[in-house]
Amino acid sequence: MQGTYHVYILTNKYNTVLYTGVTSDIYNRVLEHTDKVYSGFTSKYNVHKLVYFEGFEDINQAIARENLIKAGSRQKKLDLINSMNPNWEDLWEKEFGENHKAI
Question: Could you give the domains of the chain?
Answer without folding.
Answer: 5-102 (3.40.1440.10)
